[in-house]
Specification:
With 315 residues, the protein is α/β, with parallel strands linked by helices. 47% of the residues lie in helices and 15% in strands. It is built from 12 helices and 8 strands. It has an 8-stranded parallel sheet with strand order 6-5-4-3-2-1-8-7. The termini are far apart.
């Protein structure tokens, strides 16, 4: 029996006004790329030191409601730092894409969830990727997103549903808007078929953007307008909120576009954030693997989290 009230309460807490989610669920491979860029070896010890530095930043709980962890991080017992700050713990549960671009991870998911719950997890995330001009696997990915969401809610966990339309390519913002509308339409059709409780889930969408190689880059205002148009047509009002991903945007670009979205009128949803690189990049560059840079890096993280929080409030 799904406890709808419990799920809705957690979802609302995650998108509380002024707050959002830190996506710290980078796989070991992704973390290796991030650390290599600052000439730091991607050892388990270094990955733990970096994330511990981020999580222990004093006062960041004013802006961060939850953190999505990777399984390695969850097992490093860093969750207690977050729980002591009143920050909710989530975990990425998908297992990446297969050769067809379809996300895997449903096999054995209920058993894994039972273990994660014992470690303090209250919400989850599953990412499906939509490549504009790529393989047509949207139907299958949407079906799996819905199956994942249902399994999580039956386990008492709030699912974050992430259908990411990649910004890679030369497409215009108009093409991205068309694909985003199609994506949201199919995803919510599948969620309805599975009877997923909309009040007890969050959507993690990409913003509607020009392809990063498109010669005509859309303005911040155009991005906000196109993104909200998609929402108003295909995202039910019952959904607790959206936690936008930052994708390939810089910290300033992601922050500016989030602010513009929150300037739009008549929004029935909380329009929040679940940024990864856009929240962490400046802190990572300040840290560069040195313990003596901890305070400097934490200041950078705090400052960016504060900026994103203000953008979320249209300030």
């Amino acid at each position: 029996m799904i406890d709808k009230n419990k799920l809705a309460k957690i979802a609302k807490q995650l998108v509380a006004p002024g707050k959002g989610i830190l996506a710290a669920d980078e796989s070991t491979g992704t973390m290796e790329k991030r650390l290599m860029a600052i000439n730091v070896a991607s050892t388990e010890e270094n990955r733990k030191a970096y994330r511990k530095m981020m999580f222990s930043t004093q006062g960041v709980e004013k802006f961060i409601s939850g953190v999505i962890l990777y399984e390695e991080t969850l097992r490093q017992d860093l969750g207690k730092i977050l729980l002591d700050k009143g920050i909710l713990i989530g975990i990425k549960v998908d297992q990446g894409m297969n050769e067809s671009g379809v996300t895997e991870g449903l096999a054995g998911l209920p058993e894994r969830l039972g273990e994660y719950i014992k470690l303090g997890v209250v919400f989850t995330k599953w990412r499906a990727v939509v490549v504009i001009g790529g393989k047509d696997n949207l139907e299958e990915n949407a079906t799996r997103l819905a199956e994942y969401a249902k399994i999580c809610q039956e386990a008492g966990l709030v699912p974050i549903v992430e259908p990411e339309v990649l910004m890679d390519g030369e497409h215009t913002i108009e093409k991205c808007e068309e694909v985003t509308m199609q994506t949201l339409k199919i995803v919510f059709e599948k969620l309805k078929e599975k009877e997923v409780v909309l009040e007890g889930m969050l959507l993690k969408p990409s913003m509607v953007l020009s392809g990063k190689n498109c010669l005509a880059q859309a303005s911040v205002q155009e991005v906000a307008e196109a993104t909200v148009r998609c929402f108003k047509q295909f995202v039910p009002k019952e959904v607790a909120g959206a936690v936008f991903l930052s994708g390939g945007l810089s910290p300033d670009e992601a922050t500016d576009r989030l602010r513009a979205i929150n300037q739009m009128k008549d929004l029935p949803w909380q329009m929040s954030f679940s940024f990864g690189r856009a929240l962490q990049q400046e802190a990572l560059q300040a840290w560069v693997g040195k313990a003596e840079n901890k305070v400097l890096a934490q200041k950078a993280f705090y400052k960016r989290a504060e900026k994103v929080s203000l953008a979320r409030q249209n300030k």
